[in-house]
Amino acid sequence: MPFDSLGAFVAALTKAGELARVETPVDPYLEIAEITDRVVKAGGPALLFTNVKGSRYPVLTNQFGTERRTAMAFGVGRLSELEARVRRTLDFSLPKTAADAFGKLLTLGALRAAFPRRVATGPAHEIVEDEPDLRTLPILTTWPLDGGPFITLPLVFTKNPADGTQNIGMYRMQVYDARTTGMHWQRHKQGRAHARAWGGRVPCAVALGADPILTYAATAPLPPMIDEVLFAGFLRGKPIRMMPARTVDLAVPADAEFILEGYVDNDDLRSEGPFGDHTGVYSLAERYPTFHLRCITRRKEPIYPATVVGKPPMEDAWLGKATERIFLPLLQMLVPEIVDYNLPVEGGFHNLAIVAIKKSYPGQAFKVMNALWGLGHMMMLTRTLVVVDHDVDVHDLRRVAWFALNNVDPGRDLLIVRGPVDDLDHASSLPALGHKLGIDATRKGPDEGYPREWPPEIVTDAATRALVTERWRSYGLDRFLERASADPWSGQGAQALERLLRERPLER
């Protein structure tokens, strides 16, 4: 069952042994971030800090910090199951059997159930603060050179003034004073497009602490015509409850922990940043519009959510992996030769994509590169694309590196194009405009100017592998073979095997 609120998710994490309560006094200035960073990189639990200096509200961090917790948030055992869920929905083929037809009807029913449910009020309106003060919230300062405290998990609601369609984005908010923050919506984001349409003042509401799938949906690279609330309802299999905000004409999640209401002033530009970002470096100070707070509504006993971004791997890695799995079926609809892809955590998701394709004609790898760069928010900002053959496991980075480094002739296989890049890309010479690299690491044949025979890869004979596996199993040593195969560079498997063979040598 989906979680109706952040509190319900926290309760489930507690029951599953996936949450640690920190009752020792902690400081939101740097200390919580330092603790969280160490726990994230150790693969540790979600953290609920219940004794935060300067605030009565507990702080939750690292809720998405492992695949297991992120999968729990989506109600699945593994993130790969999300791919199958989306694939079933995108299957427009005619049913072949009665069971197939019934399955399609269930899918259509799930889509109908995804539409948001309108309610008059909800827990997020239990307390109304008409004299709001952001300084009562335990907002974190995460890194030493940060320009100040930042709200790092805001669900920012705006709408198109022409047709009233809403958008949710996740744009960090630097706190300047009790009622003013920055609004870091970048030029490629839909919130920024709404701001341009409004002109001077943009009605805005910010939800803090929604159910985990709605929080994810705010980060998803959806095209403008797809509503994030509807998308979250589809992923949950249950509608999101939405209610009217009190002071702005926007619908907000009824089950959120906090709602901040106000407006963004496009004419009030202030220095925003620096901020220690998911790239692993600071995004430097620039001028951004300001959010002006008019009202805070909240639950009686709310939880303040925060995330810490920095050098990967961090908590956002698993949100990125969820996106990778959810959007694979859609990518395959648009670029059908794609077999799989990987957005490595080390690349910050938009710096590197490894794509496996089923190749059937010359130049196909370059066609795929251009297609992906043309896909709007989903892939257009990807700095480097590496295309490999269909039989390469894109999630095995060691094999990908070996395969690519063996197969690439730089004069033939590199494509450099000029185009938009992420606002956070500090390597480009100009802000938001730079160059992208495509690498065709597929095998080549005569139709691509390679007249020689392509050398076969060294692969152990299958019969020999089976024989060795069977014999070594009889000696009880197969687990050491598995360990050595899993990480052949560590030497641990070989050392353990040598030790055992001294104790029990094989028969000659």
N/C terminus separation: 58 Å
Count of separate structural domains: 3
Overall mean confidence score, pLDDT: 89
**The CATH top-level class label of the largest domain:** Mainly Beta
Give the helix proportion (percent range). Answer: 25-40%
Overall strand count? 23
Largest sheet at a glance? 9 strands, antiparallel
CATH architecture of the largest domain: Roll
pLDDT below 50 for ≥5 consecutive residues: which ranges?
none
Q: β content, as a range? A: 15-25%
Features:
alpha+beta; Pnp Oxidase, Chain A; UbiD C-terminal domain-like; five-stranded mixed beta sheet; 15 helices
Describe the fold and architecture.
Helix 14 runs antiparallel to helix 15. The strands form five sheets. Strands 5, 6, 7, 8, 9, 10, 11, 14 and 17 form a nine-stranded antiparallel beta sheet that branches. A five-stranded mixed beta sheet has the order 19-20-21-23-22, with helices on both faces. The chain has three domains: 300 residues, Roll (Pnp Oxidase, Chain A); 114 residues, UbiD C-terminal domain-like; 42 residues, no CATH class. The N and C termini lie far apart (58 Å). It is built from 15 helices and 23 strands. Strand 15 and strand 16 form a beta hairpin. The protein has 508 residues and is of the alpha+beta class. The mean pLDDT is 89. The chain is globular.
Task: Describe the structure in brief.
This protein has about 500 residues and is an alpha+beta fold.
Topology (elements, then pairings):
Layout (H helix, E strand, L loop, with lengths): L5 H10 L3 E4 L8 H11 L4 E4 L9 E3 L5 H8 L5 H10 L8 H16 L3 E2 L8 E3 L20 E2 L2 E6 L6 E4 L3 E5 L2 E3 L7 H9 L2 E8 L3 H6 L10 H9 L4 E4 L6 E3 L4 E15 L2 E2 L5 E2 L2 E13 L5 E2 L10 H19 L3 E5 L10 E5 L6 H10 L10 E6 L7 H11 L2 H4 E7 L12 E8 L21 H13 L3 H9 L5 H12 L5
Parallel strand pairs: 1-2, 3-18, 4-12, 20-21, 21-23
Antiparallel strand pairs: 2-3, 5-17, 6-9, 7-8, 7-11, 9-10, 10-17, 11-14, 12-13, 14-17, 15-16, 19-20, 22-23
Helix pairs in contact: 4-9, 14-15
